[in-house]
Amino acid sequence: MAAIDRLFEFIPKEHFIGKKNGIHDLRENKIGHIKLALIRETTNPLIIRSTDSEATITMISVDGRELVEIPPRKLKSREKLLGLMICREFDCLGKLDEKGNRIDSESVRYNSFEGAEYLNNPNSIVFGDTSTKAGDTAGLVSRAIYDWAYSLRDVKDITEKLQHNALSEAGTMIDEKTGEMRQSLYSTEYVLPNTFFPHFITIDNISPELFVHLLSCVLNQHRYGAQTTTNANNLTNHLVAIGLAPFEKPITSYTVSKAWNEEKNKIEPPTIQSVKTLVICQMESAYGAGKIFKDKENEKTVEGLLTWIKELWDEKDKPQLKEIYAQAAKDCDAYLKTIKMIAEGSSAKGKRGKKSKTGETTDQTELEVSDESLPDIG
Fold first, then answer.
1. What is the 3-state secondary structure (H, E, C) of the chain?
2. pLDDT at site 272
């Protein structure tokens, strides 16, 4: 039995794209989606800011609350970055040489793709990527659509502003040249631990192997927001329900936050269990009983799926994951060749430009650069 077949015990095979002659046809574009319902729980102070370095991003809801708001890219960028590292681990990055071996994988860097051939990897297929190299522009849309995340409680109840200073090497704020105190104070606002953000990811036209890759990125990333090189892990991602339906249902982080305020009347402090109960209830209301896989003590529900994913990563030498990623890489290669993004049968680049008299390649088309190619400022 193929390693991936275990996935179908939790999510039926018909909810993934079809497989023919050993290849999943990633060109499929049919109705139907998979919706992941997550609760993102802060376990350490989290910095969520934009242009104002001292203020958390917020929005005013219709019921008058000022909610902490996390834009999708602040979550997606971190999980996409982990996905790149995972693909490098399983030799899924880089160009293919004439013998079909991966080469030059270290040239593939986050948000830096020097040619269409470097998009030939599971991570770019799942999260979307662009190559803007002159004469070899290309782009892939994301198959994982991220929701905005909103807090359940008002910003004043879940944040704290702290003042910091920039110490000298002597461990003080004294300017050693002048002997005077330096004005190096600054403030940072943190989202406090034990804050809950309901969040949803909608997945369209994905293969089983790419679905495993997405789950691995979401479940194993724990460091988000600004100053990730300074601060420790600050988020735990709980997958609590999976919705399956022909059409996406209008349940979002905002609607869940609104429902919390209406039901709890801003009195009862949230716990992971009470938030799970609410999210599952909202998913059942949107998708109907029996249409979602809930978090219960049953091996064929969400809890069982999470256990299986963990077992894959706990295996010595990870033979099943190697098999899964080998299939994913094979599917990606076939897809890009079918849509003529890369040349068939060789590592040569597809012709997207033409040579000038000087022999230099000039770009003949302009590709709009998506925000996925922009750096994340935390």
1. CCHHHHHHHCCCHHHCCCEECCEECCCCCCCCEEEEEEEEEECCCECCCCCCCCCCCEEECCCCCEEEEECHHHHHHHHHHHHHHHHHHCCCCCEECCCCCEECHHHCECCECCCHHHHCCHHHHHHCEEECCCCCCEEECCCEEECCEEEEEEHHHHEEEEEEECCCCCCCCECCCCCCECCCEEEEEEECCCCEEEEEEEEECCCHHHHHHHHHHHHHCCCCCCCCCCCCCCEEEEEEEEEEECCCCCCCHHHHHHHHHHHHCCCCCCCHHHHHHHHHHHHHHHHCCCCEEECCCCCCCHHHHHHHHHHHHHCCCCHHHHHHHHHHHHHHHHHHHHCCCCCCCCCCCCCCEEECCCCCEEECCCCCCCHHHCCCCC
2. 95
What is this structure's pTM? Answer: 0.84
Query: What local confidence, expressed as pLDDT, does residue 288 receive?
Result: 87
Instruction: Please tell me the predicted confidence (pLDDT) of residue 166.
Output: 63
Residue count of the chain: 378
- The pLDDT value recorded for residue 346 is 44
pLDDT class of 25 with cuts at 50, 70, 90? very high
pLDDT digits (tens, 9 = 90+) for 289-308: 777 877 665 557 899 999 99
Angle (nearest 5°) at CA 162 between 156 and 167: 170
